[in-house]
Amino acid sequence: MTSTTPHAHHRPHHPRALISGAGIGGPALAYWLHRYGYAVTVVERAPALRTGGYKVDIRGVAVEAAERMGVLADIRRASTDMRTGAYVNGGGRRVATLPADIFGARVDGDDEIMRGDLTRILYERTLGDVEYVFGDSISSLADDGTGVDVTFERGTPRRFDLVVGADGLHSNVRRLAFGDESRYLRHIGAYISSFSVPDELASAREELYHMAPGRLVCAYRAAGDSGAKAWLSFRSPRLDFDHRDAAAQRKLLAEAFEGVGWQVPRLLDASRTDDDFYFDGLHLIEMARWSHGRVVLLGDAAHCASPASGQGTGMALVGAYVLAGELAAAGGDPRTAFARYEAEMRPYVTVNQRMAEKFVPQMTPGSWGAIRFRHVMMRMLPHMPWKNYVVKKLAEDVQRCAKAITLKPYAVPARIPA
Ligand SMILES: Cc1cc2nc3c(=O)[nH]c(=O)nc-3n(C[C@H](O)[C@H](O)[C@H](O)COP(=O)(O)OP(=O)(O)OC[C@H]3O[C@@H](n4cnc5c(N)ncnc54)[C@H](O)[C@@H]3O)c2cc1C
After folding, report:
1. With a cut of 50, which residues of the chain have pLDDT below it?
2. 153, 232, 373, 402 - which has most CB atoms within 10 Å?
3. pLDDT tens digit string along 47-104?
4. Using one digit for the tens of pLDDT, what is the confidence trace for 202-233?
5. Residue 108: per-residue pLDDT
6. 111 ligand 1 Cβ < 6 A
7. For the chain, how far is it from start to end, CA to CA, in angstroms?
8. CA-to-CA distance for 197 and 116, rounded, in angstroms?
9. Where are the alpha helices (DSSP H) in 7-153?
């Protein structure tokens, strides 16, 4: 267990907040809560900051949330800066290419960044002000109405004024405070895996796609030095596996892509040795409430919309801003603040979850006929007189979801009572 304990953290008469999870939502919330006068501790199960991962979008209102945190310039500097996209057939021949004016078109300042870079930016923004404890996890929560007594797997027990679960899709805080995840998790018909691959299997600033019925493969290399990555998605009903058993997950992935052409066998080889291997279902988390007494959930823990929404990162950033802002506006009263946080966030979350569900079947065409049709459409698109209209229409749908909330201008209060 390692811990960073900056002296700024010692705020004896300030309310104390414990956040579980140093992903996206956790550090973003830590930033805002510190600004509003809280003494903040973040506990992360991983032994160090998890800086691996895939690329994620920052769109719509999330751009504004990042700007208000003062991290937008850093995000722009670390942009993946993807330029083009192409579809390849089983023999590796390019059958359709989307040029930069279609593929790379960025709307309203939206950007894309490697998840690890974003986590690092948020962590560095908060490092001097927030206590981070790595390599530990909450083991029990006892809320007596005036505070929460917390025990840890390794650290000594402590008491906090509030506890936030920002610990992702398989949230530990959710399990402890709300019960088993099977009550809240709904599978939406596909799985996704992401991992690092040798650089020669991808092309710089380009996304290469290959489709087989019910299966989609993408290899890319972002700007910067994060190395080549691949993600593979396949349609499937719910599979039974342990989400911590990487060997079982690698086997499921290899079975799902057996016989698929292009460079898929080499990608699968790379998946066998990569430590940054990720595999999980496209799942929604659907809960009637995100808070219970002094315990509240944020980001994927509360309302995962799956990677198919392209909005999980944005919702975690925006949720952090709203949750902290409502706590400040309510003078630290969790009951009022959590109710307002939910009321603000619900419509935005719902529209993005519905979008993800709608998108999943479109991600992976179900037959060779549908794949050929997709190739023809992609080949024709750059030459169509109405291509700008089509691109604009697609962007509008995404923007409608990404902008389905208006950020209130929360004021920094003089003092929140401990
Ligand atoms: C392959 C893939 C592609 C994606 N693409 C996109 C995209 O294009 N756009 C987009 O917006 N989103 C995308 N996402 C989703 C995005 O990564 C998540 O929605 C986002 O990271 C959610 O942030 P979070 O802070 O809620 O949770 P996470 O980022 O998952 O962070 C949770 C943190 O909690 C930690 N943790 C877990 N258990 C414990 C415990 N017991 N105790 C302490 N800490 C714990 C974890 O180690 C992790 O650091 C993608 C996801 C995947 C998997």
Report:
1. 8
2. 402
3. 999 988 899 999 999 999 999 999 999 999 999 988 889 999 999 999 998 877 777 6
4. 989 999 999 999 999 999 999 887 899 999 99
5. 73
6. no
7. 28
8. 16
9. 25-35, 61-69, 72-77, 100-103, 115-126
Percentages (nearest 5) of helix, strand, coil residues in the chain: 40, 25, 35
Please name which of 132, 310, 327 lies closest in space to residue 231, comparing C-alpha atoms. 310
Q: Which residues contact 194 (CB under 8 A, 6 or more apart)?
A: 53, 54, 229, 230, 231, 232, 277, 278
What's the gap between Cα 106 and its chain centre? 20
Q: Which amino acid is at 256?
A: A
Distance 212 CA to ligand 1 centre (A): 28
Give me the helix-helix angle, 387-402 and 334-363, nearest 10°.
Answer: 150
Atom of ligand 1 nearest to the CA of 49: 49
Q: Which domains does the chain have, with CATH numbers?
A: 2-52+115-184+284-360 (3.50.50.60)
DSSP state, residue 411 = P
Which residue, by CA, sits nearest to atom 19 of ligand 1? 312
CA 159 → CA 14, 110, 127, 245, distances in Å? Answer: 13, 40, 22, 33
Q: 3-class DSSP state for residue 138?
A: strand
Q: What angle do CA 315, 208, 96 make, to 5 degrees?
A: 115
Q: Going along 264-304, which residue ranges are E strands? A: 278-285, 291-292, 295-297
